[in-house]
Amino acid sequence: MRKFLFISLISLILLSLSALGQSKIQITYMRWGDIREIEVERKIVDAFNQSQNKIFVNLESTAWGAYWQQLQNRIAAGNAPDVMLISGAYFIDLASKGVFKDITDWAKKDINFKNYYYNPELCEWDGKIYAMIRDITLGGIMFYNKDIFDKYKIKYPDWSWDWNKWIEAAQKLTIDENKDGTPEIWGTYVPTWGEGGLYPIIWSAGGTVLSKDKKSCTIYSNPKSLEGLKFMYELRYKYKVCPSESFMQGLSDPFMTGNFATTLGISSFIVSYKKLPFRWGIAPIPSGPAGRFMSANQLSLAIYSKSKYPEAAWEFIKFATGPKGQEIMGKEHQAIPALKLKTRVYFDDPNIKSALTIFSLYEKGQLKSLEFTPSWLEWNNMLETTLGYAWQGKVDIEKAAKTAEDRVNKILQEAWKKLEK
Amino acid sequence: MNKTKLEGINNLILILILFGIGVLMLLPFIWMFFTSLKDWGEIFKFPPTLFPSKLRWENYKELFQIAPVIAWLKNSLFLSIVSTIGVLLSSSIVAFAFAMMNFKGKGFWFSILLLTMMVPFHVTMIPQYILFRYLGWINTLKPLWVPTFTGAPYMIFLLRQFYRSVPNSYFESARIDGASFWQIFYRIYVPLSLPVTVTVALLTFINQWNYFLGPLIYLNDINKMTITAGLSFLQGQSFGYWNYIMAGSTIAVLPILLLFLLTQKYIIEGIMLQAGLK
User: Fold this and answer.
1) Mean of pLDDT values over A58-72
2) CB count in 10 Å sphere of residue A69
3) What are chain B's domains?
4) Which of A31, A187, A345, B136 has the smallest count of CB within 10 Å of its CB?
5) Residues A125-151: pLDDT tens digits?
6) What is the pLDDT of residues B21-31, one digit of tens each?
7) Which residues pair with A62 in a beta bridge?
8) pTM of the model
9) Which among A64, A251, A278 has the least Cβ separation from residue B237?
10) Cβ-proximal residues to A137 (8 Å cutoff; 6+ apart), any chain
11) Measured between CB atoms, does B239 come within 8 Å of chain A?
């Protein structure tokens, strides 16, 4: 017995010694982002590296434009990062190819999903969990230029606004000061891309973008979807309170010009609006015939299936989606934390405070996901480009919607078929 | 109307047209420079203005504060210089062999060389990436400069054509006098081909300085980026820091502009050289 104790004591000492002598496990974490987003991410990674002494995370980063290409190369070469930031646009495509590690058991053991704004579309595939939810971006927020509203003595947009009130105010605020036929100040702008305006408008009209099983597109065949599209079209060509896309010439974010009384947009714009030379505010999207619907686009963190240290990677994901990591993210306004406990941190800024009530729509189901499918990016691009002909005034909206629906259906059919194989 | 007067008018019209085209070419650069001096609000002014209402030189100072521009410039400079040396050394030797030496399968190997020029980068991108990963070169500058020491097909082609235009009697008399191939190469052909060598050097330097896709693929640490790739970090998913991007672009263009002014003569000669190739 004594001998046994002695041996176990010695081996215990040896073990702990070897653990001490061992250098830290190194893992890599890759994300896309602009210089500020990466700066905030560095803070999160540094906080993790300081918090414990077994794992060291290397932060790697690329610009948004290069991320997916680089990731694809690295997956092909078998050295994808241990932890990667994932958007819904790619989640199913990658998960179905076995790129991510199945973390169902760990997630069920370590995570209390009730504490999170959790969208399974970004984390689950085929009944298994492959990623952990990280943050939220709101879409369809109404930004308004207080200087313009004050100058023409119009009441700021609020929760009482519906589509009629919106048009009415926009008409009063579309102003052609020098009478040359082109307004200098525009009443409103609705982005023609899904997250920013297109989807929220279709939903608020009572329509749908995809069918329930997500296998076909319904922007034309569902008359209510078409109603939403018609509203967007009429803002441009009937009421003339929103410039046509050919007039916009690809201007990505018109609100910053200071010539727009209201625009719809997403919450990531807020960071860049802080430096604007005019006063501005945030309101919910005006409610449509079916009510008020906006988008909540989430990102998640996944582990590479061939990672050598999946446990260490999971430790980091737990930290990044835990209270500490989420607080840093929210405080620096990188994105809205998915951890409910820390969501408020994001809205502490007086300028953004009013968005908190908008965010409460999440619990009511009025903030919808972007309906992710395989090949999402492909059909989404097709939808936006085809409808674009209508926004430019080249074809009428019904025709554009019908063509778009046909084209999207073709892509969707193929994408699902490929997946079932 | 006499002849000289008519010619004068013709010339005037020509000058005016060329001047117009010149201004058109310069416009993006002028736009870039003035945008780099605008403040945040003015960049997005609609309709856009060319001249900033107030010159904001702080953009440059702030750019250096928010981004590791100095590291980016250092990387770009290192890559461009080392690659230029690499391409010059390797390509001129290979070109000389193709031009002056007779060996078995010369025509075959030369067509293989030309064939590699036809394959677009996107086709070889992933296999190359896998190769460099096995060498452990990912996230280093090596994949971007080491290959230059194995020759650049287009430059080999360019040099070969020039070497072939040197009268054969030089080569023959040197041979008769007992010079080795190596001696003929660096005693006679290298000094004679100075204009084309400078052209190759300049083209390589400029290409490498402007190289965008490679750094984006192989590098994933913001401090290891080159200036052209690094600036893409100022362009986010939904908006760009345009005043800083333009300030960075202005800085990135300066070395090339300087190089051009210093070596204008050679560049123009080089263009004529390339145009003369069939």
Assistant:
1) 89
2) 16
3) 56-274 (1.10.3720.10)
4) B136
5) 999 999 999 999 999 999 999 999 999
6) 999 999 999 99
7) A32
8) 0.83
9) A64
10) A195, A266, A267, A268, A296, A297, A298, A299, A335, A336
11) yes
